[in-house]
Write a structure and sequence with these properties.
It contains five helices and five strands, in the order E-H-E-H-E-H-E-H-E-H. The chain has 134 residues and is of the alpha/beta class. The chain has a single domain, classed as Response regulator (Rossmann fold, 3-Layer(aba) Sandwich). Helix 2 packs parallel to helix 3. It is globular, with a radius of gyration of 14 Å.
Length: 134
């Protein structure tokens, strides 16, 4: 599974990377601009991401803008709807308006930090990225 972790906080990136080590060797982006570049490159190479874990609060290009641009890039590439990368917002922002905004913009899930491995894997199972627990 191809995963991109997007977070400006080094510790958060490492915690997510460690949680995913048995299912993926995730790529890392420290901000939204790096995420947009990574998604563009992955699509050009024919190796799109299956999952993006995207923080909202980042300097320069935040998670909202990155989410919007990623969906635009997919649309221009002929990828739409359920064929797009699954995006889980991974953020400390716990406000109803922010949550609803990201879903309207095209994310599939929203997880409030701190994120445990169990919580992350449960969301991945819901998105059918991992087999369901028996």
């Amino acid at each position: 599974m191809r995963v991109l972790i997007v977070d400006d906080n080094f510790v958060n990136r490492m915690l997510l990377q460690t949680s995913l080590k048995k299912v993926s060797a995730p790529d890392i982006a420290a901000d939204g601009r790096e995420a947009i570049d990574a998604v563009t490159h992955a699509l050009k190479e024919g190796l799109p991401y299956d999952l993006i874990l995207l923080d909202i609060m980042m300097p320069d290009v935040d998670g909202y803008e990155a989410l919007e641009k990623i969906r635009e890039i997919e649309e221009k590439s002929g990828i739409c709807g359920l064929d797009g990368v699954k995006i889980i917002m991974t953020t400390a922002v716990d406000e109803k308006e922010a949550i609803m905004k990201t879903f309207r913009m095209g994310c599939e899930s929203y997880v409030i930090k701190p994120i445990s491995k169990d919580k992350l894997f449960t969301e991945m199972e819901k998105l059918e990225l991992l087999p369901a627990k028996v």
